[in-house]
Amino acid sequence: MMTLKSLVMAFVLGAALVGTLPAAWAQGQGASGVPAQTRTIDPEEFLRLAYSSATLQGQAAKLASSRETKPEVRSYATAAADFRLGLLQRIETFARERRMTLPSVKEFEHQVIIENLEPLDYLALSRRYAEIQIQALDQELGIYRTASQSAHQEVKSFAEQVLPELQKQREEAQKMYDAVGRP
Protein backbone atom coordinates (compact mmCIF):
# COMPACT_ATOMS: atom_id res chain seq x y z
CA MET A 1 0.00 0.00 0.00
CA MET A 2 1.36 3.41 -0.95
CA THR A 3 1.76 6.09 1.67
CA LEU A 4 0.67 9.64 0.92
CA LYS A 5 4.32 10.69 0.62
CA SER A 6 5.18 7.92 -1.85
CA LEU A 7 2.02 8.67 -3.83
CA VAL A 8 2.96 12.35 -4.06
CA MET A 9 6.52 11.46 -5.07
CA ALA A 10 5.24 9.03 -7.72
CA PHE A 11 2.98 11.78 -9.04
CA VAL A 12 5.87 14.26 -9.18
CA LEU A 13 8.05 11.77 -11.06
CA GLY A 14 5.23 10.87 -13.41
CA ALA A 15 4.47 14.53 -14.03
CA ALA A 16 8.14 15.23 -14.64
CA LEU A 17 8.52 12.45 -17.14
CA VAL A 18 5.20 13.19 -18.82
CA GLY A 19 5.98 16.91 -18.86
CA THR A 20 9.24 16.45 -20.71
CA LEU A 21 8.36 13.57 -23.01
CA PRO A 22 5.90 13.30 -25.88
CA ALA A 23 2.59 11.60 -25.14
CA ALA A 24 3.47 8.50 -27.17
CA TRP A 25 6.24 7.68 -24.68
CA ALA A 26 4.48 8.91 -21.55
CA GLN A 27 1.57 6.55 -22.18
CA GLY A 28 3.84 3.55 -21.98
CA GLN A 29 4.84 0.89 -24.40
CA GLY A 30 2.91 -1.87 -26.05
CA ALA A 31 3.26 -5.50 -25.05
CA SER A 32 5.87 -6.05 -27.74
CA GLY A 33 8.23 -3.57 -26.04
CA VAL A 34 8.00 -1.00 -28.80
CA PRO A 35 6.25 2.35 -28.48
CA ALA A 36 2.48 2.05 -28.59
CA GLN A 37 2.29 4.69 -31.33
CA THR A 38 4.54 5.18 -34.31
CA ARG A 39 6.11 8.60 -34.00
CA THR A 40 8.94 10.44 -35.65
CA ILE A 41 11.42 12.56 -33.80
CA ASP A 42 13.51 15.40 -35.16
CA PRO A 43 17.19 15.66 -34.21
CA GLU A 44 16.72 18.68 -31.92
CA GLU A 45 13.92 17.04 -29.98
CA PHE A 46 15.89 13.82 -29.67
CA LEU A 47 18.92 15.65 -28.30
CA ARG A 48 16.83 17.68 -25.85
CA LEU A 49 15.08 14.59 -24.50
CA ALA A 50 18.18 12.37 -24.45
CA TYR A 51 20.26 15.05 -22.74
CA SER A 52 17.58 15.83 -20.18
CA SER A 53 17.10 12.17 -19.30
CA ALA A 54 20.83 11.48 -19.04
CA THR A 55 21.34 14.58 -16.88
CA LEU A 56 18.56 13.61 -14.45
CA GLN A 57 19.81 10.05 -14.12
CA GLY A 58 23.41 11.19 -13.72
CA GLN A 59 22.48 13.51 -10.86
CA ALA A 60 20.35 10.86 -9.18
CA ALA A 61 23.18 8.31 -9.52
CA LYS A 62 25.71 10.70 -7.98
CA LEU A 63 23.38 11.32 -5.06
CA ALA A 64 22.62 7.64 -4.47
CA SER A 65 26.28 6.62 -4.78
CA SER A 66 27.46 9.31 -2.36
CA ARG A 67 25.03 8.42 0.43
CA GLU A 68 24.46 5.53 2.76
CA THR A 69 22.30 3.21 0.63
CA LYS A 70 21.83 -0.53 0.30
CA PRO A 71 24.96 -2.15 -1.20
CA GLU A 72 23.14 -3.15 -4.40
CA VAL A 73 21.98 0.43 -4.89
CA ARG A 74 25.37 1.95 -4.18
CA SER A 75 27.05 -0.46 -6.61
CA TYR A 76 24.52 0.22 -9.37
CA ALA A 77 24.53 3.98 -8.76
CA THR A 78 28.33 4.17 -8.89
CA ALA A 79 28.41 2.36 -12.23
CA ALA A 80 25.42 4.38 -13.48
CA ALA A 81 27.14 7.67 -12.62
CA ASP A 82 30.12 6.65 -14.75
CA PHE A 83 27.86 5.50 -17.57
CA ARG A 84 25.89 8.76 -17.48
CA LEU A 85 29.02 10.89 -17.52
CA GLY A 86 30.22 9.06 -20.62
CA LEU A 87 26.81 9.24 -22.30
CA LEU A 88 26.49 12.96 -21.59
CA GLN A 89 29.91 13.52 -23.15
CA ARG A 90 28.87 11.54 -26.22
CA ILE A 91 25.62 13.53 -26.55
CA GLU A 92 27.51 16.81 -26.15
CA THR A 93 30.05 15.78 -28.81
CA PHE A 94 27.27 14.66 -31.15
CA ALA A 95 25.52 18.03 -30.75
CA ARG A 96 28.71 20.11 -31.04
CA GLU A 97 29.84 18.34 -34.23
CA ARG A 98 26.47 19.16 -35.79
CA ARG A 99 26.30 22.69 -34.39
CA MET A 100 23.17 21.83 -32.44
CA THR A 101 22.26 23.49 -29.16
CA LEU A 102 21.65 21.57 -25.96
CA PRO A 103 19.49 22.94 -23.14
CA SER A 104 21.43 25.25 -20.86
CA VAL A 105 18.89 25.15 -18.03
CA LYS A 106 17.89 22.05 -16.11
CA GLU A 107 14.29 20.94 -16.55
CA PHE A 108 12.28 22.20 -13.57
CA GLU A 109 10.63 18.84 -13.07
CA HIS A 110 14.00 17.11 -12.96
CA GLN A 111 15.22 19.53 -10.31
CA VAL A 112 12.14 18.68 -8.23
CA ILE A 113 12.91 14.96 -8.49
CA ILE A 114 16.48 15.52 -7.30
CA GLU A 115 15.31 17.81 -4.48
CA ASN A 116 12.85 15.13 -3.36
CA LEU A 117 15.63 12.53 -3.28
CA GLU A 118 18.03 14.68 -1.24
CA PRO A 119 16.35 14.42 2.19
CA LEU A 120 15.88 10.65 1.96
CA ASP A 121 18.21 8.25 3.69
CA TYR A 122 19.25 4.60 3.54
CA LEU A 123 16.19 2.45 2.73
CA ALA A 124 13.90 5.27 1.56
CA LEU A 125 16.61 6.63 -0.75
CA SER A 126 17.47 3.15 -1.98
CA ARG A 127 13.86 2.36 -2.87
CA ARG A 128 13.05 5.71 -4.42
CA TYR A 129 16.23 5.74 -6.50
CA ALA A 130 15.45 2.23 -7.77
CA GLU A 131 11.91 3.31 -8.72
CA ILE A 132 13.18 6.41 -10.52
CA GLN A 133 15.70 4.37 -12.49
CA ILE A 134 13.13 1.87 -13.73
CA GLN A 135 10.71 4.60 -14.80
CA ALA A 136 13.34 6.87 -16.34
CA LEU A 137 15.06 4.06 -18.23
CA ASP A 138 11.75 2.85 -19.67
CA GLN A 139 11.07 6.37 -20.92
CA GLU A 140 14.60 6.75 -22.22
CA LEU A 141 14.43 3.45 -24.09
CA GLY A 142 11.28 4.74 -25.79
CA ILE A 143 13.11 7.87 -26.91
CA TYR A 144 16.05 5.92 -28.31
CA ARG A 145 13.83 3.30 -30.00
CA THR A 146 11.95 6.04 -31.76
CA ALA A 147 15.19 7.76 -32.74
CA SER A 148 16.53 4.47 -34.11
CA GLN A 149 13.74 4.67 -36.68
CA SER A 150 14.62 8.26 -37.64
CA ALA A 151 14.98 9.37 -41.24
CA HIS A 152 18.05 11.32 -40.07
CA GLN A 153 20.83 8.79 -40.51
CA GLU A 154 23.16 10.33 -37.92
CA VAL A 155 20.46 10.32 -35.23
CA LYS A 156 19.46 6.79 -36.21
CA SER A 157 23.07 5.54 -35.98
CA PHE A 158 23.67 7.25 -32.64
CA ALA A 159 20.47 5.80 -31.17
CA GLU A 160 21.27 2.32 -32.47
CA GLN A 161 24.70 2.47 -30.80
CA VAL A 162 23.30 3.55 -27.45
CA LEU A 163 20.22 1.31 -27.31
CA PRO A 164 22.04 -1.90 -26.27
CA GLU A 165 23.85 0.03 -23.53
CA LEU A 166 20.56 1.41 -22.21
CA GLN A 167 18.98 -2.02 -22.31
CA LYS A 168 21.86 -3.34 -20.20
CA GLN A 169 21.37 -0.44 -17.77
CA ARG A 170 17.66 -1.32 -17.58
CA GLU A 171 18.42 -4.98 -16.85
CA GLU A 172 20.85 -4.02 -14.09
CA ALA A 173 18.36 -1.50 -12.70
CA GLN A 174 15.74 -4.24 -12.52
CA LYS A 175 18.12 -6.44 -10.52
CA MET A 176 18.78 -3.53 -8.17
CA TYR A 177 15.07 -2.79 -7.86
CA ASP A 178 14.31 -6.44 -7.07
CA ALA A 179 17.08 -6.54 -4.45
CA VAL A 180 15.79 -3.44 -2.66
CA GLY A 181 12.46 -5.11 -1.99
CA ARG A 182 9.19 -3.62 -0.85
CA PRO A 183 7.79 -3.41 2.68
Write down how many β-strands occur, each being a DSSP E stretch of 2 or more residues. Answer: 0
The stretches of 5 or more residues where confidence is low (pLDDT under 50) are 1-36
Biggest beta sheet attributes: none
Topology as a string of helices (H) and strands (E):
HHHHHHH
Principal-axis shape equals: globular
Fraction in helix: over 70%
Distance between the termini: 9 Å
What is the arithmetic mean of pLDDT? 83
User: Could you tell me the radius of gyration in angstroms?
Assistant: 16 Å
Beta-strand proportion: under 5%
Number of helices: 7
Task: Specify the structural class.
Answer: mainly alpha
What does this structure look like?
The protein is mostly helical and 183 residues long. Helices cover 74% and strands 0% of the residues. The protein is built from 7 helices and no strands. It has helices at 4-20, 23-26, 43-66, 71-97, 108-117, 122-147, 153-180. Helix 3 packs antiparallel against helix 4 (71-97), helix 4 runs antiparallel to helix 7 and helix 6 runs antiparallel to helix 7. The chain is globular and about 45 Å long. The model is unreliable at 1-36 (pLDDT under 50).
Topology:
Blueprint: H1 4-20, H2 23-26, H3 43-66, H4 71-97, H5 108-117, H6 122-147, H7 153-180
Helix pairs in contact: 1-5, 3-4, 3-5, 3-6, 4-7, 6-7
Comma- or semicolon-separated keywords:
7 helices; disordered N terminus
